[in-house]
Amino acid sequence: MAKQDDYVRYTVRLPRELYSMVEALANESSRSVNAEITELLEKALDRDFSSPVEIVRLKPLGININDAAAILGVSVETLNQFVQEKRISPPMKFGAEFVLPTKEVERLARSLFPE
């Protein structure tokens, strides 16, 4: 187990929307927000950004609600119905648009289109 001396304490200010997205990911993976941020940073820093394949594999934390509806092959109204049924979390405002957590869109896609 790592000792306390192996860590650096550093305070980071995040936009509320970004924090909410990281918090949702942390809850989904049963980790603390700090552990989730550490995991995300480790994954991001492990990437070989000289490879186009690795760049394409990077996933955003959130997907625009219109794009999510298109990916799932449903209308935005149907997607909003899924939100009402609590099949997916409500969209979060991120900048000028509303986004859904990518992992939740993936989970909903798997439930709509089982392999």
UniProtKB/TrEMBL annotation:
What organism is this sequence from?
Rhizobium oryziradicis
This chain belongs to the protein called Arc-like DNA binding domain-containing protein
Record-level GO BP terms: regulation of DNA-templated transcription
Please state every residue range assigned to the domain named Arc-like DNA binding: 9-47
One protein family per Pfam: Arc
Gene Ontology molecular-function annotations: DNA binding
